[in-house]
Amino acid sequence: MPDIHIDDTIVAIATASGEGAIGIVRLSGKDAVQIADRVFQAANRVKLGKADSHTVHHGFIHDEKGQQVDEVLATVFRSPRSYTGEDLVEIGAHGGMKILKNILSLFLRTGARQADPGEFTRRAFLNGRMDLAQAEAVLDLIRAKTDQSVTAAMSQLKGELSKRIQELKERLMLLYAHMEAYLDFPEDHLDVYSNEEFENRFKQVTENLRTLIHSYAKGEIVREGALVVIVGRPNVGKSSLMNALLERDRAIVSDIPGTTRDVLEESIEIGGFWIRLVDMAGLGRESDHPLDREAALRAEKYLEEGDLFLWMVDATANSFEEDLKIKKRLLEKPVISVANKTDLIPKTKWGELRQKTGENDFCFISATAREGLGRLEGQIEAYCLQQDKGTESILITRARHKQALEHSLEALLRSHAAFLQKESLEFVTVDLKAALDALKELVGEIYSEDLLDLIFQEFCVGK
Ligand SMILES: Nc1nc2c(ncn2[C@@H]2O[C@H](COP(=O)(O)OP(=O)(O)OP(=O)(O)O)[C@@H](O)[C@H]2O)c(=O)[nH]1
Ligand SMILES: [Mg+2]
Fold it and tell me: Euclidean distance between the first and final Cα of the chain, in Å?
């Protein structure tokens, strides 16, 4: 675990490595301005120590020998109105890695410490500039690959999830406070159990928690992408479809059954959703070859984990026995049935295909002639949209949040059951408190250093 001393001053290169027009080195901590002043000379000779918050200063950085390191812009942010809540200086320099590293080492030699990954945001959290859900949203926003994921991260960063959790917490606290009051005056116990208002309040919070938890199905897809797996017999055109959707020749295509052995995963955006598209070996091939066995094992993993399956058949085939066996393996999983190679058969044959397979709802395509792909993409998008069955406007996008909400709901249900069974109020309130604590953990009112380590280690240095 990183050794966090909130009283020292940290420094890091905040821009991505590589060449850029500008690069930023960031200093945060109580000596940030003072340290910057040791090496920065403003063109107008004014010291940063005298500068107002949120002001930009043109000048030069010199090393200990008086050698000019770069011409820069220094921006000063005063505590507490800064990203971290501490004094913060951003040096906008020329965006070459050598220059930025030189500036970084200079600051390390003049009193700052190299920041750990995510330490700026960790300090923002510890200094109360944002709660834990908002800190996590910073990372989600940086990593967002689609408009949908940007919107979800932005909403969380603005505190919309935190606000909803706050409302739930207040409702639970009210319930808790009333119960405690009854505990202090045991003679009133009879009243509390027959009080309909309590019952309604329990129900309302339980419902709210459930809706939030349900939003995770879509939230997960929005943040992490949906795993869409193309399955089917060898040679039906799975790799051709992969290439067609990606619009490039990613997978090897040939008329030899068993061309694809490994599992190929590539990402694309469909309708604002991030799709992790998977092509793999054809299923149902008997083979003793060790490579085929390995391929089968890998395929198995994706059959387990896939969110959505594109079950593909060759529309020109005469028998679909093997295809139907594959379909059976998908059991309860969401499936889009795809009939490929329609360029080789007249439309009049489509009915025959439906009859032979007992499947009415085919998406007819030709991967090589690029026909029907728009419709297929539409169905994939519809699947992603459908995952949000509730009326909740806020999306739960992280497994950690879902877990906290589930813990809260379980504790609340236990508490409710104890209440209905007219058990001693102590039992009721113990679980109510647990339900409340789980929500506090979600937003970081209660946290452990281990949890913070886990969250912030995902961040880059400088954020
Ligand atoms: N006419 C026509 N041929 C196609 C179409 N899609 C694929 N093919 C051909 O079918 C053959 C098999 O295609 P692949 O994409 O390699 O099939 P696959 O399902 O990945 O096969 P395996 O990797 O062996 O499981 C190739 O010769 C493709 O050119 C299509 O829509 N129309
Ligand atoms: Mg293939």
Answer: 18
